[in-house]
Amino acid sequence: MAESIEVKVPDIGDYNDIPVIEIHVKAGDTVSVEQSLITLESDKASMDVPSPASGTVKELKVKLGDKVSMGSVIMIMDADASVSSSPKKEEPAPVSQPVVPAAPTPPPKPNPPQPIQSSAPVSPSDIGKAVSHASPSVRKFARELGVDVSKVKGSANKGRVTKEDVQKYVKSVMSGETSTGSSSGVGLDLLPWPKIDFTKFGEIERKPLSRIQKISAANLSRNWIVIPSVTYHEDADITDLENFRVQTNKQNEKSGVKITMLAFMVKASVAALKKFPEFNSSLDGDELVLKKYFHIGFAADTPNGLVVPVVKNADKKGVLELAEEISSLAKLAREGKLKPDQMQGASFTISSLGGIGGTAFSPIINAPEVAILGVSKAAIKPVWNGKEFIPRLICPLSLTADHRVIDGAVGTRFNVYLAELLSDFRRVVL
């Protein structure tokens, strides 16, 4: 016997007002358990909402472009009660959207501007200027990017500024299409982006950017410009560690868990972060937030672009456990099934190109972190041992650090210490 149930957005972490970018079913469709119903897109990745039961779609409650949060009803379904994985009585209560109280009525003025929501603070630079109509979350997003929201033209109803408007503004400033109005020599006084008809020179093909590439643009631009970063390079002799890795994998072949060098990198990085705690921190105004947890992000290559899954509490896990979790998270990333909370909370990130190639690179720091480790492909090189040159497996390390927190001496010491740990992994347990 079928019963009507409300299908709601499950726990998606700390995200709210996530836009619906795809709807995979329509009224009358028959669906199975775990079948994708809609796709949501956060500022870091896209995610599917699966069906909690098998049955028939009775009524859709959302349309493309709608914004939802955890508990939002997306459809009504006639589900088979015997196979429903989310009975009505166990469903979480829908999360009501908070009601923002109206702002205090300003003193009478000729042609008063649009009132501001009282929960959105106004910076001193806004005084005396027309203030754009934007929600507190959009204002916070703009502040994080260093954008004066009063300069952003709103595209929503009544000129309201959206998050997408802020992202477009950043892109236009970066390309030189929009001037910041600064003439002090310290602003983004860039020349306009060249407008060229490439077809005059030959045949071309246009390929749209992936969703991940588009939504990452503003964050990457901000991090590259705002953070005064320096990259430190060091070589790690991983000859003995690689031999141990190969031997261990042979011994554990039946378990199905294959240890990659990345698992050792994570473990060694945690030991280095404990010795140099400023690398496991974030800037917050005039204060440095030193974190007591060790959540390590790692860049995962997917068909749609790079994403950064996070291994939580890496200090409490052994190499085998780390290898298994990294493999599982990387698989979810490639399949586009990572949950928001699996990409949040990183205190340090590793970007490894070892499986592809390269000798060195300068990775971009993921704000609000203060450092990121780049790992390139290891190669056999001659190393002088005092008597002769011997072949050793050398892995290049490229550590990018925020110079506001990490000076050159500390950055170099961290890299040297990390290389020592990888050269003799016994040091990790000391």
CATH C-level name of the largest domain: Alpha Beta
Note the run of SSEs as H and E.
Answer: EEEEEEEEHHHEHHEEEEEEHEEEEH
Provide the CATH architecture of the largest domain. Answer: 2-Layer Sandwich
N→C terminal distance: 63 Å
Major β-sheet annotation: 7 strands, mixed
Helical stretch tally: 7
Low-confidence stretches: 83-131
Count of domain modules? 3
Shape: globular
Average residue-wise pLDDT: 83
How much of the sequence lies in strands comes to 15-25%
The secondary structure category is alpha+beta
- Write out the CATH superfamily name of the largest domain: Chloramphenicol acetyltransferase-like domain
Question: What is the tally of beta strands?
Answer: 19
How much helix is in the residues? 10-25%
Q: Over the alpha carbons, how many angstroms does the gyration radius reach?
A: 26 Å
CATH topology name of the largest domain: Chloramphenicol Acetyltransferase
What does this structure look like?
By secondary structure, the chain is of the alpha+beta class. The protein has 3 domains: 2-90, RNA polymerase II/Efflux pump adaptor protein, barrel-sandwich hybrid domain (OB fold (Dihydrolipoamide Acetyltransferase, E2P)), CATH 2.40.50; 132-198, Irregular (Dihydrolipoamide Transferase), CATH 4.10.320; 231-429, Chloramphenicol acetyltransferase-like domain (Chloramphenicol Acetyltransferase). The protein is 23% helix and 23% strand. The chain is built from 7 helices and 19 strands. It has helices spanning 136-144, 163-175, 211-226, 239-251, 261-275, 319-334, 408-423; strands at 2-8, 18-23, 30-31, 36-41, 46-50, 55-60, 67-68, 73-80, 229-237, 281-284, 287-290, 296-298, 300-302, 305-307, 310-311, 348-352, 371-375, 379-384, 389-402. The strands form 5 sheets. Strands 9, 12, 15, 16, 17, 18 and 19 form a 7-stranded mixed sheet that branches. The chain has a 4-stranded antiparallel sheet with strand order 1-8-6-3, with no helix packed on it. A 4-stranded antiparallel sheet has the order 5-4-2-7, with no helix packed on it. A hairpin with a 4-residue loop joins strand 18 and strand 19. Mean pLDDT is 83; it is low at 83-131.
